[in-house]
Amino acid sequence: MPQTPVHTSQLTEFASSLQPEHAKDGVGVSRRAAYAAFGWVLAFLAWHVVWAVTGLRFPHHDWSGAARMLMWGFDAVIYVMVAVGIVLPLALARPWGRRVPRWMLLWAAWAGCALLGARGIAGAADDVARAIGFSRGLTGMTTAQAMGTGHPSAWLSFASTATEVLFVAGGLMFGLAALTYQRAFPRRRSAEHPTR
């Protein structure tokens, strides 16, 4: 008797129908949170284009010697982090991301949450400290050192504040993506901790 071939899409639909409704909802929420984090990455990259187009400079570009070399190294690390930041939300949202170990995705997402959030909060606190009279802020840098000029324009002040807010928002987006992914795809104890 000839057998009818079963297509992968039919198997996927069947497996999906066996999942409880709350599990399907969790996957959908996780996917939306990951896409929101990806949207933040695009906004973050666009914001850097705005900085460049409007003529805002990064103060460390005027540095020389060892300080400049240190900043080049720092920039290289940032470029790697941006590349990971672009791919990570897509890996959390798309089925191909399930090929990456769960712990690796979660570790990267939580690290992104912590780094972005800490950067934004520290930058905002430094700006507030300078605004209320601590001339060297919390970092020990004057306004001229932090912003490249002792008398920042209204646009530069706004751009600096918006950047800090953007960092905090990124921390929240990656944290939400990590949390919803962790809940939607719980660790499978039998696969990771086989019984003896």
Folded structure, characterized:
- 73% of the residues lie in helices and 0% in strands.
- The chain has helices at 8-18, 21-53, 65-93, 102-131, 143-147, 154-184, 189-192.
- Residues 190-196 have low confidence and may be disordered.
- The protein is built from 7 helices and no strands.
- It has one domain (24-185).
Task: Provide key terms for this protein.
mainly alpha; 7 helices; 0% strand; 196 residues; disordered C terminus; single chain; elongated
- What count of helical segments does DSSP give? 7
Termini distance? 42 Å
**Overall spatial form:** elongated
- If you average the pLDDT, what whole number results? 81
Largest sheet: none
Supply the number of structural domains. Answer: 1
Helix content: over 70%
Query: How many strand units?
Result: 0
As a whole number of angstroms, the C-alpha radius of gyration is: 22 Å
Main structural class:
mainly alpha
Order of helices and strands: HHHHHHH
Strand content: under 5%
* Oligomer classification: single chain
Parts with pLDDT < 50 across at least 5 consecutive residues:
190-196
